[in-house]
Amino acid sequence: MTPELMISRRLFALFLFGCLLFNYPILSLFNLELFLFGIPLLYLYMFAAWTVLIVMIVFVMRPRAKKRFTAGRHRKSAEF
Amino acid sequence: MLTTETILFFSFGYIGLLFAIAYIGDRHAQIGQSLVSNPYIYALSLAVYCTAWTFYGSVGRAATSGTGFLPTYIGPTLVATLGWFVLRKIIRISKVHRITSIADFIASRFGKSTTLGSVVTIIAVLGIIPYISLQLKAISISYLVIKDYPLIHVPRHFAEIPVFHDTAFYIALILTVFTILFGTRSLEATERHEGLVAAIAFESIVKLIAFLAVGIFVTYGLYNGFGDIFNRARAVPELQRLFTLDIRTGSYADWYIHIFLSMMAVMFLPRQFQIKAIWLFPLYLLAINIFVLPIAFGGVLQFGTGSIEADTFVLTLPMANHKESLALLVFIGGMSAATGMVIVATIALSTMICNDLVMPVLLRMPSLRMAQRADLSDILLAIRRGSNVLVMMLGYAYFHFVGEYYTLVSIGLISFAAVAQFAPAILGGIFWKRATKTGALSGLIAGFLLWVYTLVLPSLVQAGFMDPGFVTRGPFGVAWLKPFALFGLKDFDHIAHAVFWSLLFNTFLFIGVSLYSRPSAIEHSQATLFVEAYRYAGETDGSSFWRGTASVGDLRSLLVRFLGKERTEEELAAYALRHIGGRQRYKWEDDLEADAGLVNYVEKLLAGTIGSASARVVVSKTVKEEPLGIEEVMDILDETRQVIAYSRELEKASADLRAANERLKELDRLKDEFISTVTHELRTPLTSVRSIAEILHANPGIEYRQHKEFTTIIVKESERLTRLINQVLNFQKIETGRMAWQISDVDLKGVVHDALSSTNSLVQEKRIRVEQDIPELVPTVPGDRDRLIQVMVNLISNAVKFCADEDGRIEIRVTTTPDHVQVSVKDNGIGISRNDREIIFQEFRQIKHTLKGRPPGSGLGLTITRRIIDFHGGRIWVESEPGQGSSFFFTLPQGNRPVNLAEKQSTVPSG
């Protein structure tokens, strides 16, 4: 598996995860008239979920991921 | 401070700055120091997506629907993850095929169809015009609002303002000039407009800073942070209900349809793509949205509902609190947001109009003789600039007549819904090979008509162009045709409703019609190139869709007309370097024949300038070549079929070889068996000779009678040995064709007699009765007497071998026919089964009897017999039933029918 393929699979998983976060029924769990730190729960949830998604994209795309993957492969191939 | 002069000064100053940045960007690109290759600058330029809609409209939307503004930005975040699958492929394909617009992309995918290109262009232009008009509206309103400072007053009724007193009109003019200067300066549309991208990236920074500044001012200046604003909002019933999503049937469906819509829009809105720092764009979207809700609530808390349009809160809040410089910054920020998209959209649309709508028509009009003109670049530029003006004016007209009745976001969403119509054709086109042009065309047209029906017509009703009853009662009073509740669907909001029906019919027809229509040859080939973009990436230059050849001179003059002389030579040299290689500067002779690869390359170069559909028209006209027809495709298929046939033949040949090999192995086995048989046959007499000789040697005083008996055995065994050896030698001679034949007239009566006398001892030994039935007069036959005797001896000894042990009988009969003499030797032995009758004449074959085992002898006798008979032009066969004895027959041609034996001798097969 090439690093590109690995990244694209992880991103696709993120896409599915994002669809889950921003749709019924998960969304309905937070659709309550509650306040957390003085902020409506729904607003807080949406921005928090959004931030989490972006952080995960950064994590998947970080340059080290590619490097480490390649290095890992080299190590493995050296073992055999 | 906020006088009209100041505002205008800063506005024009800002626009001047943009011009400067664009100019510097272009200069850098020219000297090879690209500013835009920096991923952050590129990601910032993507934020052109955040238009005036985002800058002013989000707050307006949030003030009435709470989180309803968010799907527009969550969608692009999801696209950032999905981008690797979809956008990367689209970018790849566009690069390889030099595709410059969505119209070009769809047209090229479905067989470079001009029709499809024009339809997509029309949909794109009509669909995106509301989007452009919303930007003009935002600039216009914000100017009208800020110029009345310190009065806070939101203008209405734009339609009453005369065009030449309307700021929006002049803004449209300035933007047109900017677009023409930096967007349509050169013809090559695949070139990145680096200056433009740099200017847009700069605008993205300005609008973000302006918006964040307002957000911080409202949240922390006017109020004490987020908690404070939301706490106060709880007291206002209109705001309190915005804290949650509506609980009604369609609200979640609305929500995800809006997310889906924004995903499609961000993918297919006209713009250049690149996948660099893909997380930066979502982060930008998040940042610019954080303060939307506080500003919206702050605005409502400040102004109440209804008196001031929520779309202007971003500007009116600083104004109401006398923050003049902040208000000016907001005004500039809003202008940044609006102008970026107007410029990008106008360039894209004008390219589409020129390449996919105007050029194909002009090229097809024989009276214009366009294809024969010496230099077309001026005409092209003129068309493109004209399209620029046209698009901008259409945008202005829509704003002027319709725009005032809608909020910014609802105008924008109308455009999004139009752009989403491209999704089935593009996504289907790059992942599904079977998608056809007819399918794409039907889907697009159906989707577009439904879009017009459910969104555009109602907007005309609102603007007073149509009877309001169309919306409230349905056309002609038909309730289930009401444009906002088509077929009775009432649960969705207007946009979700329109998207649902238009995309449903679009997709349904796209798939259905594709499945029921046949793609043409060129559609087939394009489908493969698009769907398998990664596989064919390197090979497309060599794909030979053009058959036949053209002269290099023709192609060169064609290129010069569109690209200019200098660039033509550069591109030809580049092609030579890549495909002919080696030489530094390949000289393209004009009378040289261009191969299909070069024609293809030329077409692609032209596609970068005038779009794939037009390029195809031009190339086919100039080169006067027939594109790949169905016959050629069949030829290609035929080649494949031939390869298959060839491989079948190979298989057959190898099967033959295998069979031959089997036979060789069998022969080898038989030969081994033969050798062991012969050795055995040789050893038996040798052993007896030797043991008798030893007895005689050890007992010198042996009785005479016994002595004679022993020596008789020795003689007989030696004869047997000699016979055997002769047989092997004869066989060898016959097989290799070295037998010396002595041909004379042979009397068969004598032959039978001689054979009988030489086998007499054998016959006597087994007490076999021999009967002869030979006529008095037997015609002579030409042949070798000794060999014929050998035949008879073989047959007789064979008969003796297989005769019944008790009461053996052999019949020898000679008969004559007019042509032949026939001899038969019949025994009353065990007989031969049907299967064995043929193989007994083959070399080394011996029939194993189930009880008696292998008969004595070398197994060569009958083979030699057959060879001898064959040589004489005769025939030998056997008739037999198991248990009934067997009869061997042979015929020989008579002497009066001359057989050219001498000739035969030389052609005797040598094995």
Indicate the topology.
The complex is a heterodimer of chains A (80) and B (911).
Chain A: H1 3-21, H2 26-29, E1 35-36, E2 39-40, H3 41-61, H4 63-79
Helix pairs in contact in A: 1-3
Chain B: H1 4-30, H2 39-46, H3 52-65, H4 71-82, H5 87-97, H6 102-109, H7 114-147, H8 167-182, H9 194-222, H10 225-233, H11 237-240, H12 251-268, H13 280-289, H14 292-303, H15 313-320, H16 324-364, H17 377-401, H18 408-419, H19 422-431, H20 437-462, H21 469-472, H22 494-515, H23 521-531, E1 550-551, H24 552-563, H25 565-579, E2 593-594, H26 596-610, H27 612-623, H28 630-698, H29 704-736, E3 743-746, H30 748-758, H31 760-765, E4 769-773, E5 781-784, H32 785-802, E6 809-816, E7 820-827, H33 834-839, H34 861-871, E8 875-880, E9 886-893, H35 901-906
Parallel strand pairs in B: 4-6
Antiparallel strand pairs in B: 1-2, 3-5, 6-7, 7-9, 8-9
Key terms for this structure?
heterodimer; A: 80 residues; mainly alpha; 4 helices; 76% helix; disordered C terminus; B: mainly alpha; Amino acid/polyamine transporter I; 4 domains; 5-stranded mixed β-sheet; 5% strand
